[in-house]
Amino acid sequence: MQVPARLIGFAVVATVVSMASAQFGGFGGFGKGVGKGDYFTLVNNPQVRTEIKLTDAQVEKLPAAALKALTEVLDAGQLKRLKQISLQQKGNAVYLEADIKKELKITDEQAKKIKTALDAQAKEVAEMQQGGNFDFQRIQELNTSTTETVQGTLTADQKTAWTKLVGETIELKGFGGFKKKNN
Fold first, then answer.
1. Which residues are registered as beta bridge partners of 172?
2. For residues 91 and 112, what is the distance between their CA atoms, to the nearest angstrom?
3. pTM to 2 decimals?
4. Could you give the maximum distance between any two Cα atoms of the chain, in Å?
5. Are 158 and 100 in contact (CB under 8 A)?
6. b/e sequence 62-87, b meaning 16+ C-beta within 10 Å
7. Three-class SS string for 98-151?
């Protein structure tokens, strides 16, 4: 099952909020660590979604609601930087999101090549998981080669526009002990 891009975006916002929550002792006394007790993380958990009977229509509204809540707390510069970091963390699928395709002027032919590369990566990862042969090194190699393929489809102008969209690269630590670099 492929995760819709809007859920990935929400997950990034939820993770950032969770990290801040953990760093500052939780919101309203909730949370004693990342992902424990804050509302953003809880509502992103499938078991909690089932428990509170969250509908698909409600799930679709969550990213916008989370962003709206953040706009009430963060100033414009903070919000811009958060969006940049979110784009950096989304991975190569971000290039297929409608707003990014429009912003970078990605053609249908480029989108097709990007989707083909993503599908090939997903297929190989799924085969590893099904075979019980999960190889983290191979996953990193796949990520690198897929990124190279995706970047290879972009024009120089698109790459420049992307660099402006994502701002300065940040390596986030604390996501299961792994570091994620900008695409």
1. 180
2. 17
3. 0.66
4. 50
5. no
6. bbeebbeebeeeeeeeeeeebbbbbb
7. HHHHHHHCCCHHHHHHHHHHHHHHHHHHHHHHHCCCCCHHHHHHHHHHHHHHHH
Q: Would you write out the chain's pLDDT as a tens digit for each of its 183 residues?
A: 444 444 445 544 554 444 444 333 333 333 344 446 688 888 888 899 999 999 999 988 988 898 899 999 999 999 999 999 999 988 999 999 999 999 999 999 999 999 999 999 999 999 888 888 878 898 899 999 999 999 999 999 999 999 999 999 998 886 544 444 445
| Contact criterion met (CB below 8 Å) for 19 and 31 | no
* Burial of 127 per CB tally in 10 Å (0-12, 13-18, 19+): exposed
| HEC assignment per residue over the chain | CCCCHHHHHHHHHHHHHHHHHHHCCCHHHCCCCCCCCCHHHHHCCHHHHHHCCCCHHHHHHHHHHHHHHHHCCCCHHHHHHHHHHHHHHHCHHHHHCHHHHHHHCCCHHHHHHHHHHHHHHHHHHHHHHHCCCCCHHHHHHHHHHHHHHHHHHCCHHHHHHHHHHHCCCCCEEEECCEEECCC
